[in-house]
């Protein structure tokens, strides 16, 4: 492999490690915050916290107009052009649009606080708290705009630091606020101020890192502002529609489970869904932070675009494969560790979801070709189609297979998606799977299928033997991934301690150990 290729893989792994590490820290802090809220407020307070959070997220999704995603693309495209004036114009307009959309969303929530309170809580007593959430919406949208600037400039280390610091400050201050209200005998009144505080901390940290980016001062004509804004909103509105479709599909799926089964089944599905998404979600978020702007910068060069997608898919499979196998092997232990023994039915759903997640990792990089090329209509209709297919599959799956039908539906949906997205990007950019990707797939897909089938067939007959064999398969997959990754990146780019361990265990090829 050429030195350029190895440097590219090294960049993927470096950005994945930075963003993935910050995501792990943020999630852990979120767990701490949730645990503290549960101890202080009890179940009712946690439910109230979730309702207020849902109102905030939905309002932000609508008010944000998707500019945090479209902004990344526009900035990355401007940076790729090498035109400093174009970069300055894009950044200036992004900041203005983020401020205006945040202000508009906050104003709408403020004006509609009574109807929103009635729809959410079936009373007007919470209208004041809903009105106060307008501040969280305003801060959140501006923070998203600043984050888009940092990501679009591919300052991944700053993005990771920004996320971690925002999570730390938000967690500490929100717990202190809720506890302060609790000491005064009105703990539930501290929930919304805590949410506002978390959003406020995020805007401070995002501003701190965004200000480091030096951009030329430019004066824009009304025509230039209009053109840049139109470009942001064209793709941004598609992102917003996609997000709303995903949120809506998730809501309707839970309604189907609730209507056809019961509230406990909905809880089991939620537990399996959350755990199935954690590990793969870290990987996809980590890779996407740097991958999307990199791909956008070369979107017009099909050969380079396809090379990046193949590299990203290869690294994704190598990182995700061992984790998926471990989850399949230790699913009962994981469910009991994070929840309790009462969530036993979630185990089978989790295993089916793991199969779907394997295909998700393989298909995910291909979907970014559509975004990088700015094919808005194609992206919108493909997202709408797959969400409708998922809804239909869940409904049929629940009727035929019961609760585990939700997991089967998830796998079936990603089989359809993988085939469909491959056909689409093949026409868009002439994409083909690389030989390296085919080799990795031929290793992991049979292993994942063998562990899944073996567990269902042999575990009832020989539980301990099945666990040991599946664990050994997982260890083998982990060693294979490490050796392959070590061969893909220059050894000198790794930390000194990592180099010593790799040489000690002979994970790198012989020529790299010299």
Q: In percent, how helical is the residue content?
A: over 70%
Instruction: State the low-pLDDT regions, or none.
Output: 510-514
Task: Tell me the β content.
Answer: under 5%
Elements, N to C (H/E) = HHHHHHHHHHHHHHHHH
> Which word captures the global form?
globular
Structure summary, number of beta strands: 0
Q: Please, how many helices?
A: 17
Structural class: mainly alpha
Please describe the biggest sheet, giving its number of strands, its sense, and whether it closes into a barrel: none
* Termini separation: 17 Å
Radius of gyration: 24 Å
Q: Report mean pLDDT, rounded to a whole number.
A: 77
Overview of the molecule:
The chain is built from 17 helices and no strands. The protein has 514 residues and is an all-alpha fold. Helix 1 packs antiparallel against helix 5, helix 5 (127-152) packs parallel to helix 7 and helix 13 (376-401) runs antiparallel to helix 14. The model is unreliable at 510-514 (pLDDT under 50).
How would you summarize this macromolecular structure in one to three sentences?
The chain is mostly helical and about 525 residues long.
Give me the secondary-structure topology.
Layout: H1 3-64, H2 67-81, H3 84-111, H4 113-121, H5 127-152, H6 156-183, H7 191-210, H8 222-260, H9 263-297, H10 302-329, H11 331-338, H12 346-372, H13 376-401, H14 405-429, H15 435-458, H16 463-488, H17 496-504
Helix pairs in contact: 1-3, 1-5, 1-6, 1-8, 1-9, 1-10, 2-3, 2-5, 2-8, 2-9, 3-5, 3-8, 4-5, 5-7, 6-7, 8-9, 8-13, 9-10, 9-12, 10-12, 10-15, 10-16, 12-14, 13-14, 15-16
């Amino acid at each position: 492999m050429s030195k350029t290729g190895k440097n590219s893989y090294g960049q993927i792994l470096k950005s994945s490690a930075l963003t993935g590490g910050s995501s792990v820290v943020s999630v852990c802090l979120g767990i701490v915050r949730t645990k503290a809220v549960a101890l202080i407020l009890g179940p009712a307070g946690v439910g109230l916290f979730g309702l207020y959070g849902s109102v905030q997220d939905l309002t932000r999704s609508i008010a944000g107009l998707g500019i945090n995603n479209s902004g990344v693309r526009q900035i990355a495209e401007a940076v790729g052009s090498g035109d400093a004036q174009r970069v300055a114009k894009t950044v200036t307009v992004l900041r203005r649009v983020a401020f205006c959309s945040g202000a508009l969303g906050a104003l709408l929530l403020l004006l509609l606080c009574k109807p929103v309170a009635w729809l959410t809580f079936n009373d007007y007593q919470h209208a004041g708290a809903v009105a106060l959430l307008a501040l969280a919406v305003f801060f959140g949208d501006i923070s998203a705009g600043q984050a888009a600037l940092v990501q679009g400039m591919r300052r991944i280390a700053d993005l990771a630091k920004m996320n971690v610091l925002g999570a730390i400050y938000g967690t500490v201050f929100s717990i202190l606020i809720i506890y302060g209200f609790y000491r005064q005998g009105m703990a539930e009144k501290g929930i919304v101020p805590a949410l506002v505080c978390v959003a406020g901390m995020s805007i401070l940290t995002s501003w701190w890192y965004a200000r480091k980016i030096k951009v030329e001062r430019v004066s824009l004509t009304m025509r230039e502002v209009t053109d840049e804004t139109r470009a942001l909103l064209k793709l941004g509105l598609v992102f917003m529609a996609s997000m709303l479709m995903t949120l809506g599909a998730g809501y309707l799926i839970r309604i189907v489970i609730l209507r056809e089964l019961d509230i406990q089944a909905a809880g089991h599905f939620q537990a399996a869904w959350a755990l199935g998404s954690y590990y793969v979600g870290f990987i996809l978020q980590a890779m996407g932070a740097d991958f999307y702007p990199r791909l956008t910068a070369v979107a017009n060069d099909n050969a380079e675009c396809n090379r990046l997608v193949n590299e990203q898919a290869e690294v994704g499979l190598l990182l995700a494969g061992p984790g998926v196998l471990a989850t399949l092997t230790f699913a009962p232990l994981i469910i009991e560790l994070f929840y309790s023994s009462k969530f036993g039915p979630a185990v089978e759903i989790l295993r089916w979801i793991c199969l779907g997640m394997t295909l998700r990792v393989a298909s995910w990089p291909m979907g970014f070709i559509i975004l990088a090329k700015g094919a808005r209509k194609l992206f919108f209709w493909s997202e709408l189609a797959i969400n409708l297919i998922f809804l239909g599959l869940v409904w049929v799956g629940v009727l035929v297979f019961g609760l585990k039908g939700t997991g089967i539906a998830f796998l079936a949906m990603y089989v359809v998606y993988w085939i469909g997205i491959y056909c689409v990007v093949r026409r868009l950019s002439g994409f083909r799977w690389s030989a390296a990707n085919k080799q990795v797939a031929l290793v992991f897909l049979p292993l994942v299928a063998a562990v899944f089938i073996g567990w269902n067939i042999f575990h009832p007959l020989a539980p301990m033997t099945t666990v040991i064999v599946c664990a050994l398969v997982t260890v083998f997959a982990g060693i294979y991934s490490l050796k392959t990754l070590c061969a893909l990146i220059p050894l000198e780019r790794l930390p000194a301690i990592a180099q010593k361990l790799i040489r000690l265990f002979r994970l790198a090829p012989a020529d790299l150990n010299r």
